[in-house]
């Protein structure tokens, strides 16, 4: 085999093992939940409320991540321009990029709060 092919496979194999372990863990979690809940009955009214709750959580995470991506794009471009002119400001530039990423965290926290109420 060619060395480049071997190097590519050496990079892919650990990722495949990790993905397989995650899938096994998720499958066992689903099977354990089915055994634990057994006789719970979901009424149509409760299903309707849960549907809108899941949609609200998905929208909050999606729009929060989208907003964070746009903010990091603008702030990151400005930060790189500033660091190119004055390298001593790299720490301040990274702080502003981190603040822009905080928008996604707020969306995730809001989604967890919504899902906690369901």
Automatic annotation (TrEMBL):
The chain crosses the membrane at residues 56-81, 93-115. Gene3D superfamilies: lithium bound rotor ring of v- atpase (1.20.120.610). It is found in: Membrane. GO terms for cellular component: proton-transporting V-type ATPase, V0 domain. The keyword Flavoprotein does not apply. GO terms for molecular function: proton-transporting ATPase activity, rotational mechanism. Keywords: Ion transport, Membrane, Signal, Transmembrane, Transmembrane helix, Transport. It is a multi-pass membrane protein. Residues 1-32 form the signal peptide. InterPro entries: ATPase_proteolipid_c-like_dom, ATPase_proteolipid_csu, F/V-ATP_Csub_sf. The keyword Ligase does not apply. Residues 55-114 form the V-ATPase proteolipid subunit C-like domain. Pfam families: ATP-synt_C. Belongs to the V-ATPase proteolipid subunit family. This is ATPase.
């Amino acid at each position: 085999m060619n060395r480049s092919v071997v190097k590519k496979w050496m990079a892919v194999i650990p990722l495949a093992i990790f993905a397989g372990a995650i899938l096994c863990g998720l499958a066992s979690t689903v099977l354990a939940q089915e055994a634990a809940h057994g006789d719970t009955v979901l009424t149509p009214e409760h299903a309707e409320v849960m549907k809108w709750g899941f949609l609200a959580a998905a929208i909050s995470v999606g729009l929060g991540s989208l907003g964070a991506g746009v903010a990091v794009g603008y702030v990151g471009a400005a930060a790189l321009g500033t660091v190119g002119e004055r390298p001593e400001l790299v720490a301040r530039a990274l702080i502003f990029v981190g603040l822009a990423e905080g928008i996604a965290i707020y969306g995730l926290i809001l989604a967890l709060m919504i899902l906690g109420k369901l």
